[in-house]
Amino acid sequence: MFWWYKNKKPKLPQKRYSPNSVPILMDDLYNHYIIPSESLTYLEKLGTGNSADVHLAEYTNNSNSIKVAVKTLKLNCFKADTLKEIKLLSSCKHEYIVKFIGWMETPDEQMCIITEYMGGGDLSTYLTNPNKLLMVSTVFNYIFQVLDAMIYLSHKYILHRDLAARNCLLNETYEILKINDFGLSREMDINYEYISEANPRLPFRWLPLEALLPTSSEYRTFTFKGDIWAFGILVWEMFERGHELYDGISLPALIRFLKVGHRLPRPQHCSLELYKVMLSCWDENPANRPTFDTLQDDVEKVFQEIKTSDPNKLNIAIELNCGNEYERPNIS
Ligand SMILES: Nc1ncnc2c1ncn2[C@@H]1O[C@H](COP(=O)(O)OP(=O)(O)O)[C@@H](O)[C@H]1O
Ligand SMILES: [Mg+2]
């Protein structure tokens, strides 16, 4: 997550949301948001990401108990940076953004962030589970929820920088999607790490071309147009049920592939019109990419068009490994 400074603010269309957060002072983080460790009972491990281990825990406060997720950041995370980011996270209140509950520091100085527990787990796991039914209408529903949250963040001048299925969480009925894991990328190492090939877990396949190019004057740049690129990739992930992006391409091959104008192919159940919207997110020139506001209008138009002309298309179940129809990108 990264704040644009005032003089770098991009021009955004008229706000649909006025961010409802009262600025949170650093003191408030100490006064109101510290969770005493004795109020947490750890239950099970939920997952491991790039920067943290996440556990399910029961949090008891004034004799009320709720389930929470406790994210314990790896030791190489600096406390000052983490606190700045916690401050930002705590200022985000939106129905499609995972709710911040508090934070604490363990006796061995590990920083923990406590958020609401999302019983459906992450979207990437859901998409790749063959036992889960995924309808085209559900994908549209998820897309609209993501867009709502991203409009909110972009109006607050907050970059996510790691928008991907693995960072979207679902509620226990899989109807509500919330964006998670923003602000947790260290500013100092995000670009270096994210394009490092040594570690295949790092998500360079979600990054915009300008963040990958070693020779560009815009080398390692990531603006809100990078989040737009990642949004297009996320839509692709949904329609391909978590299929590996670009078939696991290497970084140099990906740069060559994108540089000559190739892009991920259209998934089988993604309409041509929606695919055009995705392609606009992957325009080589960041200035030509849409904003989240215009994307909301564009996707709404596509959705309404399908609904009136061929509503049955919304009831199609997207099967896992409908790979026979998957046009592999032609990468040489
Ligand atoms: N609030 C939550 N509820 C349920 N599962 C969660 C929650 N937060 C994280 N997880 C699980 O832990 C994984 C890693 O969490 P994440 O916040 O993305 O960590 P990292 O910053 O290390 O990538 C997620 O993909 C998800 O499976
Ligand atoms: Mg993550």
TrEMBL record:
Positions of ATP binding: 71
Residues annotated as domain Protein kinase: 40-303
Provenance organism: Panagrolaimus davidi
Protein name as catalogued: receptor protein-tyrosine kinase
Membrane-topology annotation of the record: Single-pass membrane protein
Chief location bin: membrane
This protein's record includes keyword Signal: no
GO terms for cellular component: endomembrane system; plasma membrane; receptor complex
